[in-house]
């Protein structure tokens, strides 16, 4: 197994790191430097959905990928359709190559961080893109979890609120420290709220101040002009975190200048910050907590550097504010990658040699810790009801119905993950029969889920081993075959089946009794 790297898959950048011998090294890549506009080189085709390629170079804004992957199949670039999943896979492939060039060894797996509020279809699309980009093993880790893991906050019983505000996504998460490990209590978020909204507000402010009658037919800003305004807006936003006033220069037919003060900037973005605070209060309430229960507030994401954000949080909670460094998320991902690598290395199960099959006492090693699949937060489902009710009350019945239909699509995934959790816990406590029952129910809802398949296979292997030890070879054979259905390449299970067949044939002619429940007899002429 090659190196497992950590990837902070952000809206405006992509950080990478590797953990070796307990030390985390930050590795630069082509998408980790600078700010928007980031571009991705992409081979240009006459029709990007076909195989025939006429190589040229397309440039695509990096910031669009995270928001579109999992939601849009294609986008238009220079009039041509481009598959979003291909753009994302090209990004991961490029990042993998960059890191490989620095560490000088093969990169086979990645821990990729995503916001807690990301939907399962977004997560699934990111996993597909990463594997298509060359990563054999991929696991997603919530950004807030990665930050707390790397922060060193481990005081028993402490409650931490993680306020994450990036370029395109807002998320708030609550954790309780238990046995030195952050246990998630609740997540809330908005997948379309972030620093990009602040940029848009500044752009509108610039247009209204500098350009008379922007709605007139004479004013038709080009895409290049809007992109230029966005660059100015983002620079102004960043500068106002340190300065009280900035000057914006725009060239149209002549150079125009505009002064933007921090107080004016705060006025036009206050409504967005208030929205994040409302979601934060909702998370606390749904976790069964009060503001008094929060011990500290951790800030992650570039947009939290805006002074107004920390000021409003301080006024709301009057708690310790921990400002996380930029590299904290990718550090947590890299550290988690070490554990992931160890789990992968334990995947191969050792079986005895053939001469050890008598009296068929077999022990197999089942990893004690099986990582749960990425899933929506507990608050995700209730959000559908809240949003549907809000739409209905505001006369938007169609949106309310669409929201509930989306709930029906997500519900089987949610139920499957509950069965997974229950089955996994039962397996770890050696209640194997009941574990298999719950895992089978989960597979009825989510048949293609790799985590369910993997744990079900392990459960069948463990039960098959016990049945062999008891001498019940017929049922052991049937159980092992059930597990092989979801992991047909498992040589260990196939070897066991082959060895059971060999032992059965030997005993068939010796007339021996095997165990208490399995009996064979010598064939007579009447048996054919």
Q: N- to C-terminal separation? A: 52 Å
Which percent range describes the beta-strand content?
Answer: 15-25%
Portion in helices? 40-55%
Radius of gyration: 28 Å
Tell me, briefly, the overall form.
elongated
Unreliable spans: 34-60, 347-380, 511-528
Strands of the widest sheet, in order across it, are 3-2-1-8-9
Largest sheet: 5 strands, mixed
- Average pLDDT score: 76
SS-based structural class? alpha/beta
Tally of contiguous helical segments: 15
The count of strands amounts to 18
Keywords summarizing the entry:
five-stranded mixed sheet, alpha/beta, 47% helix, elongated, 528 residues
Describe the protein in words.
The chain has 528 residues and is of the alpha/beta class. Helices cover 47% and strands 20% of the residues. It contains 15 helices and 18 strands. The chain has a five-stranded mixed sheet with strand order 3-2-1-8-9, with helices on both faces. Helix 5 runs antiparallel to helix 7. The radius of gyration is 28 Å and the shape is elongated. The C terminus is likely disordered.
Layout of SSEs?
Blueprint: E1 3-9, E2 14-20, E3 23-27, E4 39-43, E5 57-61, H1 63-68, E6 74-77, E7 80-83, H2 84-103, E8 107-114, H3 120-132, E9 137-142, H4 143-151, E10 159-165, E11 170-178, E12 181-190, H5 195-210, H6 223-239, E13 245-251, E14 255-261, H7 262-286, E15 296-300, H8 307-317, E16 320-323, H9 328-345, H10 378-393, H11 397-428, H12 432-445, H13 450-470, H14 473-484, H15 491-510, E17 513-514, E18 518-519
Helix pairs in contact: 2-3, 4-9, 5-6, 5-7, 7-8, 10-11, 11-12, 11-13, 12-13, 13-14, 14-15
């Amino acid at each position: 197994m090659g190196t497992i790297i950590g990837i902070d898959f952000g809206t405006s950048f992509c950080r990478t790191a590797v953990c070796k011998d307990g030390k985390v090294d930050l590795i630069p890549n082509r998408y980790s430097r600078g700010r928007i506009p980031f571009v991705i080189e992409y081979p240009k085709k006459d029709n990007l959905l076909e195989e025939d390629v006429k190589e040229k170079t397309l440039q695509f804004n990096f910031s669009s990928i995270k928001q579109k992957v999992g939601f849009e199949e294609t986008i238009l670039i220079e009039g041509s359709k481009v598959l979003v999943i291909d753009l994302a896979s090209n990004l991961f492939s490029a990042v993998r190559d960059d890191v490989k060039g620095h560490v000088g060894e093969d990169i086979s797996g990645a821990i990729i961080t995503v916001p807690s509020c990301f939907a399962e279809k977004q997560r699934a699309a990111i996993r597909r893109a990463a594997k298509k980009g060359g990563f054999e093993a991929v696991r997603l880790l919530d950004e807030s979890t990665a930050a707390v893991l790397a922060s060193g906050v481990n005081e028993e019983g402490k409650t931490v609120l993680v306020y994450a505000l990036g370029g395109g996504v807002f998320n708030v998460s609550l954790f309780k420290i238990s046995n030195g490990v952050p246990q998630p209590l609740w997540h809330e978020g908005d997948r379309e709220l972030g620093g990009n909204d602040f940029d848009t507000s500044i752009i509108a402010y610039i247009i209204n101040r500098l350009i008379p009658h922007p709605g007139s037919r004479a004013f038709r800003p080009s895409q290049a002009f809007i992109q230029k305004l966005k660059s100015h807006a983002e620079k102004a936003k960043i500068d106002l975190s340190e300065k009280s006033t900035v000057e914006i220069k725009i060239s149209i037919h002549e150079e125009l200048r505009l002064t933007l003060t921090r107080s004016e900037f705060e006025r036009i973005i206050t409504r967005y910050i208030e929205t994040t605070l409302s979601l934060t209060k909702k998370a606390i309430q749904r976790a069964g907590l009060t503001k008094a229960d929060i011990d500290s507030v951790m800030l992650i994401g570039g947009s939290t550097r805006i002074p107004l954000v920390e000021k409003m949080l301080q006024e709301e909670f009057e708690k310790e504010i921990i400002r996380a460094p930029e590299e904290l998320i990718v550090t947590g991902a890299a550290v988690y990658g070490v554990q992931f690598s160890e789990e992968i290395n334990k995947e191969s199960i050792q079986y005895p040699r053939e001469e050890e099959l008598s009296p068929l006492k077999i022990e197999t090693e089942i990893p004690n810790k099986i990582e749960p699949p990425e899933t929506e937060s507990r608050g995700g489902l209730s959000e559908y009801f809240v949003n549907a009710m809000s739409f209905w009350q505001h006369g938007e019945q169609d949106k309310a119905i669409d929201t509930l239909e989306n709930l029906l699509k997500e519900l089987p995934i949610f139920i499957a993950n509950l069965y997974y959790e229950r089955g996994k816990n039962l397996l770890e406590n050696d209640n194997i029969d009941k574990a298999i029952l719950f895992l089978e129910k989960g597979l009825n809802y989510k048949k293609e889920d790799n985590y369910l398949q993997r744990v079900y296979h392990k459960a069948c292997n463990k039960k098959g081993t016990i049945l062999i030890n008891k001498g019940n070879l017929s049922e052991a054979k049937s159980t092992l075959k059930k597990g092989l259905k979801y992991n047909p390449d498992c040589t260990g299970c196939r070897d066991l089946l082959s060895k059971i067949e060999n032992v059965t044939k030997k005993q068939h002619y010796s007339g021996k009794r095997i165990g208490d429940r399995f009996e064979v007899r010598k064939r007579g002429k009447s048996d054919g």
